[in-house]
Structure formats: structure tokens, C-alpha cells
Amino acid sequence: MVPVWLLLFCLSVAQVFPEVQPAELYVEVPENYGGNFPLYLIKLPLPPEETEGEIVLSGTPSVAAEGPFAVDPESGFLLVTRALDREEQAEYRLQVALETEDGRVLWGPRPVLVRVKDENDQASGHQATATVDVSIVENTWVPLDPVHLAENLQVPYPHHMAQVRWSGGDIHYHLESQPSGPFDVDAEGKLYVTQELDREAQAEYLLQVQARNTRGEDYTEPLELRVVVMDENDNAPVCLLHDSPVSIPELSPPGTKVTRLLAEDMDAPGSPNSHIVYQLLSPEPEEGADGRAFELDFTSGSVTLGDAPLRAGQNILLQVMAADRGGAEGGLSSTCEVAVTITDVNDHAPEFTVSQIEPVSLPENAEPGTLVATLMATDADLEPAFRLMDFAIEAGDVEGTFGLDWEPDSSHVQLRLLKNLSYEAASSHKLVVVVRSVTELVGPGPGPGATATVTVLVEKLVPPPKLDQESYEASIPVSTPAGSLLLTVQPSDPGSSPLRFSLVNDSEGWLCIKEVSGEVHTARPLQGAQPGDMYTVLVEAQYEDEPALSTSAILVIHFLKAPAAWAPTLHPVPARHLCTPRQDHGVVISGPGEDPGLAGGHGPYSFALGPNPTVQRDWHLQALNGSHAYLTLALHWVEPREHAVPVVVSHNARTWQLRIRVIVCRCNVEGQCMRKVGRMKGMPTKLSAVGILVGTLMAIGIFLILIFTHLTLARKKDLNQPVDSMPLKAAV
């Protein structure tokens, strides 16, 4: 039996691959074919198997009716179902198409010309066929006339392969020019092959068969027989060596040629066994990808780039299967491999890691060369040459006050000060730094990350504060009470920025200074201080809006002996009270009537509230003149009760503390104090009144319960007596 592919490549003229097919497919069929049917003729160039549709074969009405041709839907081969006779019809014109169920044409129609090959079966006379082709088919016995045998056929030898018959009388046959060849013929015209044949050793043999009568006379010229040794598919395709790896630049467009894979087959050239087709095995398309990374031409082995993008640095192993017999079933195959490397191109623009730098503050007297900021940039390219960067200040530095410093192969740049700053000329600078690739960029241009903005704030140079004295001294008696004013620290320029004051090294805690005014007071009694001793503290002053700018001065306190005890007298004032909520009146405090130590009246008295924070919050003391002060409420509401307000009276270095008793009460509309009235004697309290009322109600309730109980019992007794019972009257 002849395999279905046997005559496919032996008899067809046209190639079977779509890329090189002519407009009309052509195939020859031997007439009166004596082998098995169906006989496969040619593989049709149908679309890929994924295409859904039905193969439709059409032709002349006679062809359609008798149906000698058909198409195998699985393999796509055109086949003939019976023997053809050239004298009946020499050729057939067919059309093949792929259509859907609704008649829509997906492929074709493709014309096919089938020509019936003349086998000269109408010869007459005493001469046999001029030339007989005897073919040897590998590993297959084909009952043809002439017979086909395979090379390397494992059968007993000599082996009968053909029969030559000469019309005429008693004829004997012998071979000419083949005394020791692999063929022989007996007297009856049976041709034999005497040993295994190897196509690689010799592909064809030309035999001359001579017909003679019994007298040894030749009937005619020798009959020439051409024996073709058919190829056995015993050689798999061999991949040719390929320079590896193949380098393909990133971003190459689809269709770019990658390489061409070639394989050789040592079987007979032009036979199906040596016809090689290629199939891409790997890489397979990624899941969810729109296309393939590589495309393969199955006839030429040419590999091109597909639609799927490739990344720089990828190392891909291409595996391609090379199969003989045109990829038909039963063929041999080999796997060809070639490494492909995707090389990097400069398609990524460098970008700063941070595009907006936080404001940087520089003092006005910063020296040139001062580092302002360090900017970092990155480049996604792999090639070191493509990562080289160039930096420049694009905007914001017209005067050239700033400059950039970086190494050629570095990814960071330093922004430095080149000239002196001036707050009056510019209080801030907004610099725009740009980074570019040294090598020409491929693909899209730089994005927004290619620039970074640096804001430089210039700090105005302000001199430190200056006080009105370099040092301060004060002399106070050791008996000076807490809250006494010692002196006031002031700035040398009253129009300068406000200062904030504080004390340093006040180890005893004797002193305090008001933060805003600079007044220095005694914080507590000077316990432990001895006359003649000195106490040194440091007064520190700093700007309110610039705490970093400060100055200091030394304050020395000299302790004196305590004077003789004397206190000013509080001159009697009309008995008054202060109203809460606050009203417009207060209490007048006067200095001493007679001060033996102040004969001649040297200077006025000063009045101040005690150091208690609550007293200073609730009360307000205002000097009226050199000898009197006016005490009022500082808050709108003060608790109504009798208050003892401490007042410190000072004169020169002498101080006294007075306690002024003031009654705070709620007042009526006339301003008169409303006193709280106590409980009158003999009058019940609320609690006792409630108790009496509850006791009375309980007594009344008990009395009513007793009455109702008595009535209920009496009524029940009357009901228990019989109705017809009458008292008996005694007869007199």
C-alpha cells in the first residue's frame, strides 16, 4: 500500500506552502493508478487550524456528480477516490474555499488544476513500453505494475520486483551491461533485486532488458528500464550552527528581523522526506498578552519581532522545531535553539527623586561655597553610558549667585552659593534645576520629573540687642519684703524690636524679672542674706521675633542693714465697701502721716500689690499722687466676702507691707451692700416644717383608716343576723 503522501511530492509541480504558491495549484495523477485509494495528491494552503469554517470543493457538474476528488478536513490534503483515465478526461479544474455555515467565504476560492498523466497504456505490436520506471519505496511493498520497493528493504534476496512481458512467441530475457549488478532477470521476464539498495550510494539505475527467441536472436532494441531508488526517511533535520547570542535593540518595531534558523536533511533533495518546515516552540505568549514577542515564517525559518513589547536586559532562548515531510505525521524533527539578548537603548530620561525641595534658609552673611542642597536623580536605563547625566540651573539665577557641582558619573549634584547674598536685593531665590541625559535620547522626551525646584530664603542680618547699661547694681536692706521693685532693665534704643527678659544663675530664687517690662523684683523674703554681702545674677535679653539673637548683663545686689521698724499708718477713710459685679468706686490708701526719718519729705511713696498671682489678678492699684493710691477690683466678679489685700509701700530703699481689709458684697441698684440675713430664733427650719406637715398627714390617715374599719365590721355584723327574727314581747 502506498502511503497517502507518496505521490504528493513526486508528481506535483507546485510547492505546497502558501507563501510561494502560484495563483493556480497544479498536480499530476497517473492514469489507471493500481494502488489503494484514496490517493493523497497535494496539501492545500488552508488558514491556521484556529479558523472555524467548512472546506468546500467545487468544479464541473460531472466532477461534482461522480465525486472523484475530496478534501481531508483533518490534514487539508486534496485526494482522489478512484482511478482516472486520461482518454476519458485529461484534466480537471477544481476550486477550494473555506466558508462559514451562513455562506461567508473565509479563505479562497483557490483554483486547482489536476492533470491525468499518460502512462501509454494503448501501445500495440510486439514492442513493450519504451521506458518503464521501477521505483523502490522505503520499507513498503507497493503492488504496482511496475513494482516499487524500498531502499534497505529487509526481505530475502533475490527479490522479485517487476514483470516484463513481450507479446510474441517463445521469448527469453536477459540484462545487458549488468553482469554483476544488483538486478537480475529470469527467462520469463521477472526482474529481481539481488541486494539491499542505498539511495545515498546510487539514486538511479538504468537497466537494459533484451528479449530473444529460442534461437538466440534479438527481437528488437533492448528495453530500457529506469529504476529510481526512493528515499527512506532515515535522516532527521540537522540544525546549522548559529552565532549566538543575537542582539536586538529595545524598542525595535514589529517585523524587525531577528535571525533565520536553517536545518538540513540528508534525505533525497526534493522529496517529501527532505522538505523541512519550522514551528516556534518557545517562548510562548504570556498570559493576557495581546500578541507574541516573536513571529516565525514556517517555510523559511525567518524569525521576526512580534507585537508584544520586550524589555532591555532580557535573555530569551528561542526554540524552533524543524520537521521534515512538510510537518506531516510520521516525519522526523529536531529542535533548533538560538539565544536572543535585548540590548538597552537610551529610552529613559533621567528624573529627580524629589522634584520640590523644602525651603532652605541661608543667613545674609553666608560665605561663597556654602552647600545649599544636594539633589538626587535616577535613570532607568541599564547601559552605564546611557546613565550619564548633565545638570544645569534653568531659571531663577540671573545674577549667577548659585552654581552646580557634580562628578561626571555621579547621580547627585550639589547646589552651592557662589556670591554674597543681600536681603535688600532679594529676600528669596526660586531656582529650577534641570537634568538631561548626556547621550541622545531615544523615544519620548523628558517628563516633568526632569526638573527640581529649590527655594532659598535669605535671612536678614540683625545685630544682637543692646541694653542701656553694661551692668546693674542695687542696694537693698536684708528686710526687704517680697514683691519690692529693685530696678528696671531697658534696651539702649527704645525704638528697637521688643525684648524678652530672664534671669540666669538666680541660685537662691530671691529675685524675679518681668518678661516684658524688665522690672526686677524680690521674689521672696531675703532669708539668709547678711548685711554687706553681694548677690550676683545674670540678666539675659533676646528679641521677641528673633530668639536666637540675645545679650546679657550682670546684676549685683548689695545687702544693707535693716532700718528701724516703722510702718506707715493707714489714714481712716469713710467705711466703704466694694460691689461685685464691679462698680465705679474703690478704696483710697494713704502714706504715713508723720515719718520721723523723712523730715523734709525727700521724694514720694510708691505703692504696689503683693507678689501673690491671685491678688494681682483680682485687684488693681493705681497711684493718685506721691502719698495716696486707689484700690479697685480688677475683675468683673470677685467672690463676696472680706478680703485682706497685701500692699507694698516703698520709699527710697525702705519698704513696708500693709494688709488692707476690704469687704466685697453684692449690691442693690442704689449701690448699698446686701448682707446675708441669719435664721431668726424660734422659727422652724425648712426641714422641721416638712416633718411637721408629714406627721400631721400621717395622723389624719391613721384616723380615717380606723373609722372605715369600724364601719365595715358593723355592717358585716348586721348582715349575719336572720331577717325574720323578731324580739319576743312578754305578756303582762
TrEMBL record:
Q: Where in the cell is it found?
A: Membrane
Please give the GO cellular component terms listed in this UniProt entry: adherens junction; catenin complex
Which domain of life, per UniProt?
Eukaryota
- In this chain the Cadherin domain maps to 21-131, 171-239, 246-352, 354-467, 468-570
Which molecular function terms from Gene Ontology are attached? beta-catenin binding; cadherin binding; calcium ion binding
Gene3D superfamilies listed in its UniProt record: Cadherins (2.60.40.60)
One family from Pfam that matches here is Cadherin
> What protein is this chain from?
Cadherin-16 isoform X2
